[in-house]
Fold each of these.
Amino acid sequence: MSVQVSNFSDTPRDRLAIDFQINDQTVEKREVSLNARETKVVEFTGFNLTEGANRCVVEVGSGDFAADNKFYFTIRREAPAKALDCRERCAWPERQLLPSERAELE
């Protein structure tokens, strides 16, 4: 997941802590420094989701206007869909695939 972090002030911000929380648990932390009026993209990749809706928060640890330093959102993880893989051998009740039909699926 990518997060865009911006410094809208005229002064640089050093070592801002950015917390990523899922279901009220901090799952990853990053630290970033921003020059005045600078924007950076911060990535979070090492997290797992439970099936269903997951409540998420990205919070920038800054004392300035704390309400503006949190972003709330939801990520929904669906159960994996099941599929029939007919690339090697597929036993249909009526017949198996012909070689020409198999080639169309590859």
Amino acid sequence: MCSQCVPNVFDDMTDFFMTKVFAGLSENFKEELKIISQQYPCKPFLFKKEGNLRLQFPEGIAMLRAKGITNEDGSPLEDTQDLSTAQV
């Protein structure tokens, strides 16, 4: 098995799994989502049925920077920064 094939298989499996999850939520839990949206207004799930967007981490950081997102102290986001929620 080639080393480039394994990541592609995992990408395909992840796309399939996530599409099934979101489609299942949208189709099988309409009433529950309607009730939840009364307390927490939100838009319906939007997802592509095929070919989900894949970003490398630095690309995602660049998109956040382009939208003006900074750290809590106002400093710019770093390419290798941990974006986890601060623990209190």
Amino acid sequence: MLILFFDFQIAEYQEDKIPSSLNVNFDSELLLLLREVNYLAAPPFNIHLTEPVRMLLRNTDVNLLRSTATYLETIVSRYNDILQNIQDTEWPLFEIKIDRIKKVCSQRSF
């Protein structure tokens, strides 16, 4: 089973109480590498792969990994867009949810 950690980073509150943006730390080259290794193991190349690599390929759904990474990037992008465009009068409407997001990100339980 492949376990990936998506590293969300959130800065501390600034003076105006608006936190900085979130970032998804996911290297898209991982998807390319997994695809290339899969191609090299198949005909006509038939390159011998070690058992850990074969097990990794069997247990990794590259399409699911790609769609999950894209989904997380979309969520983070929308969140950052809200933070950048929020008006002072709108802040009380979002403050509780933003605090909840910050709490979840600080737990690193995802």
